[in-house]
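Recall the central idea of this unit: under ordinary conditions, the amino acid sequence of a chain determines the structure it adopts. In this exercise we apply that idea directly, starting from the sequence alone.
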Amino acid sequence: MKTEVGVFIKNRLLFSYFIKKKCSIFKKLVDILLQNVLYTKYVHENIFRKEIHMKKLLSILFFTCSCFSFAEHRISWEAVGALPAQKSYDKNIGTAGLLQGMIDDYVIVGGGANFPIKPLTEGGSKVTHKDIYLLKESKNGLDLVEQIQWNTPIGYGASVSTGKEIYYLGGSPEAAHNKDVLKVSVKNGKMKIEKVAELMLGFENGVATYQNGKIYYGVGKIEHEEGKLKNSNRFFVLDLKTGENKELAAFPGEARQQTVGQVLNGKFYVFSGGSSVSYIDGYAYDFEKNVWEKVADVVVNGEKILLLGANSVKISEDEMLVIGGFNHDLWNEASDKLSNLKDKELADYKAQYFGKEPFRYGWNRKILVFNAKENRWRSIGEVPFDAPCGAAFLKHGNILYSINGEIKPGVRTPRIFRGEFR
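Accordingly, the structure predicted from this sequence is:
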């Protein structure tokens, strides 16, 4: 085992924030931090392990004073707790692929999947959960109002909020329920969950949006002739009043899953996603004409950014904000090697690939904004926490919530992060 004197700071923005002088408190804390760091070590296969002396200081640095420009605003982030344990479990280790949405000032999340018994690297099985949480915003974060279980486990479906209800499409490990459309509503602090329709085909890891009493959905894993789910570019509409499903013009890009999308200026913008390879292309759907048009690829300052596993919120009629997403090049490499290597080579690659610390995967920590009027992507900074994939991501007024999500293959975070536009 070798040791090396040095300092490893995980968040690269520490020094850029300091230089740009965006937060005076932050500058003072950086000075203190640099006087109180310990050494870092290479341990076991030369993987860096951080040993920072002042954990409380780091918490303040990363989550209270992460300030950056957002147009004329700043966003400050803080950690605000975790979700309660699912029923029959001692603790909640975090999930990915959650049901999510806002109803008035209630936050509703639930379901999702994780590896609660044994880690993926030890052969653990993925469990999809039934628990759904009703949370109320408070000055300290999110307070639990109610926790219930749905009849069946749910995860990796598409969530659509209307303001008064949340619709959840597909997303069940049970084939008998991956066509279900659930409606979540709230009355007097109590959730009501009911099945209200069925999709034309089984569906998960797709994109969906609500428009004028209809839900538009597709571009994900969709049931095909053999009854199994596979990546698809098919696109549908569900009329909530009649329950009728209708197939629409197909998404022009290759079949894929885990895209991001928002309605901007009356069109449905859908970006990125992946299959065995990464995609960065984008298209806008015209509801009236039933046609798609090509729009800007997800490229910022010449860098291709993969949004597979990312999530988005609408921040204005023209703009959407995105966090998370796998690393573009590493996704392609891992998909190839995990599919094609054999025996010892495969075992060695798995040990190396799954054994990394979260920051080694290079997942997207940039906070991205797409402007539909300008047809342009830009970065406005980075989140001061591990990049999430499959997290719930919600906006209410000037508050953002990033809830749970995967932070490396097979590993979830239980934490909830709140960002506030200032």
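Residues 328-340 form the longest helix (13 residues).
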